[in-house]
Amino acid sequence: MSIHSSRSNVDVVIGMQDGDEGKGRFVDELAAGYDWVGRYNGGANAGHTISWQGKTLKLHQLPSGVQHEKTKLFIGAHCVINPEKLMGEIREVESHDLKVSNRLRISPYASVIQPSHIILDKITMRDIGTTKNGIGPAYAATRLRKEGHRDLDIRAAHLEEDFEWAMSAARANLIHERERWNDEIREEMRKGNMTADEVSVEKLMNDFIRYSKEIARFVEADPEMLIREWRKGKRILLEGAQAFGLDVTSGPTPNVTSSNTGVHAAFASTYLPLESSGRRIGVAKAIPSRVGHGPFPTEFGGSQSEEYCENKRHTEAWEREQYGDRIEAMLASDDPFEMGIALRILGGEYGATTNRPRRLGALDLVRLRHAVSANDLNEVFLTKFDMLSDFARTATGQVPVTNSYLRNGRKIQYAPTTSAGLYAAEPELHYLDGPTTNLSTIRSKDQLPSEVHRLIGDIEQRINAKISKIGVGPSREQMVNLKD
Ligand code: IMP
Q1: Which residue's alpha carbon is nearest to atom 2 within ligand 1?
Q2: What are 139-143's contacts with CB under 8 Å, separation 24+?
Q3: Does residue 68 carry a catalytic annotation?
Q4: pTM for this structure?
């Protein structure tokens, strides 16, 4: 008899597009039913807001599920950890009477983001528009391992087993990068983009030592702890931090994050057996969005919209002031750029922290189909489905979707894999009948109009997956279960 249990008690939730799919809401709700909730990639680059006793808490590195006090929290092997930020989050959450310290375990294999990584990110990676959390350099360190005599990678286990060595490695790396980029650092300081504290070796190392010591107690020395928990029958939910479109291997480099973000990464980062895999849920937004630079073939208004959305002046308040009295006319315009602005205002599609306008585009069924097959998803949740009703008031009156691309004039059924290829690809738009009424008060599938059932069936057929939930509004109850 196998020593393994055959229980499929490990479920994974990923974002299927380029982020901001609204996955957090589902994860928070699902989390209550699990013994463990784990993060398997990324670091403080992810952002996730939860509501707790009427207060809003912002999480970056702590797994969702933090508000369910019986749920234990795991940070996986392929995560990169910023000790100061993680401790800040723990303190913040605990100040709201929510205990974390006794529930959090960090994989011994997770890597530590060092002060030098954050400087490198700020100085050398500006063109990607990263979150400046040192993510790329920290992942690079795990792969490079050594540069001359310097040890580049510090693992969580080192904080527990070899603290002095880890700190002296971090100091050597910091002094090295500080000197190597001295001219650029001075220029940034002169421009007011960096402060003296941000580059002071003593200040940075004092803080790093202090917070690294604090997080050492969360490091799980035994690499098989989570596997044993699964064998005991514990239920585990693994949550992707960044969306599949930002995957470092399959996304359009360099406009991606530095980790693998899909379902396979969840198992690679936890070493849980493949037979433990149960639900593999992908979350997609009915009108997809992208923040910042990078290819987005179905974008309404194409490069004009990309450039416009990068302008920091174009905040929600500015757009409302500028266009507020002609939203319906813009929605009905023949110009997709104008239609996109109207959809953004109607859907409140602005970055949660930056307030930057999100670029919006047509639902790309080619990329969704790929996300389904590459991650072997067995469920799809479609958020912001209610926004599709706005298309009834556009020039075509229908919902635009893409089911194929044109590449050099030839029809292809896949999305090109490079940034240049995606920019050059031309999506072929199809128009499907969509909802014509307001869906926000609907709670059961029997109340959905027949055109919605037809549209969902059509999308399911094209992406080869069942859609099991649709979101019809921002609050938790505004959800329709399509399963039964
Ligand atoms: P990094 O992950 O900070 O290196 O940033 C690389 C790219 O990924 C940038 O375009 C970021 O805006 C994007 N990115 C990183 N994390 C997230 C996320 O959680 N949501 C959406 N975009 C993200």
Answers
A1: 257
A2: 139/80, 139/111, 139/248, 139/258, 139/259, 140/258, 141/111, 141/114, 141/117, 142/80, 142/111
A3: no
A4: 0.95
Count the helices and strands in the chain (H runs, E runs): 18, 21
Round to whole Å and give the CA distance between 414 and 437.
33
Q: Which of 118, 124, 47 lies closest to 352 in space, CA to CA? A: 47
- Mean pLDDT over all residues of the chain? 94
Active site residue 158: no
Q: What pLDDT was estimated at residue 1?
A: 38
Does the pLDDT at position 401 exceed 50?
yes
Residue 6's pLDDT band (boundaries 50, 70, 90)? Answer: low
Listed in sequence order, the DSSP H helices in 52-195 are: 83-94, 115-124, 135-144, 156-161, 163-180, 182-190
Backbone angles phi, psi at 61, to 5 degrees: -110, -25
Ligand 1 center–CA 245 separation, angstroms? 10
Cα(254)–Cα(127) distance, rounded to whole angstroms? 9
- In contact, 84 and 113? CB cutoff 8 Å: no
The catalytically annotated residue of 11, 18, 20, 121 is: 20
DSSP 8-state symbol, 382: E
Distances (CA, A) of 190 to 194, 375, 390: 8, 47, 48
Can you tell me which atom of ligand 1 is nearest the CA of 133?
Answer: 3
Q: Using the mean position of ligand 1's atoms as its centre, give its distance from the Cα of residue 22 in Å.
A: 15
SS3 470: strand
Nearest to 244 by CA among 350, 390, 376: 376
The answer to whether the CB of 133 is under 6 A from ligand 1 is yes
Name the nearest CA neighbour of 357 among 301, 398, 396. Answer: 301
CA separation for the pair 129, 9 (Å, rounded) = 38
Could you read off the pLDDT of 422-447 as tens digits, one per residue? 999 999 999 999 999 999 999 999 99
